[in-house]
Known about the structure:
single chain, mainly beta, Immunoglobulin-like, 3-stranded antiparallel β-sheet, 10 strands
Amino acid sequence: MKSLFLSCVIGFLISSNVMAASTNINMTANIINTSCQIAVKDNGQIDVGTVDFEYLNNNTSVDQIYSGGSPFFITVSNCAQVSGKNPTRLTFSFTPVSGALSPTNQQVFANQSTGGASNVGIVILSIQDAQNVFNVLDINGQPRSIYSVNPDELINATYHFYARMQKASPTQSISSGLVKASVLVAVYYE
């Protein structure tokens, strides 16, 4: 039986026709100096407090401010010109450092605490304009915090955000425990 299997594998390897093709690709790139300095309130240590099940079950919108969270700000300064031109757009990109976004809601940063609360994560909202509060991520988990800027705002500007806990899936139950999310904030402009 073993030799029959080996014979079949060898026969397959010998009888299979392998064809390949190759080509060269020429690539060009342009490197620009687009670095800014950014600083996050309290060195990025944000405590969103303690909430109960009722809070999580009643506050279901990922785009609204509910009490029980924490405001924070990010200061952007000393941005260089891009190819001699002043940038007009500034984008904040929030991504999980490790782990992922919630598999049931790409606008919620998944809980990274081992043995912590289940079906609970963190949302971050832009509160730069009190009349236009929104989740920093769109429904696909892509950056949504894009601001029009003028050159003075790239010298030293403060952008305001709000973090709070969020039930990831409204149809699933939650359990109590620690909630933790490590988020990388990248700022880029063009």
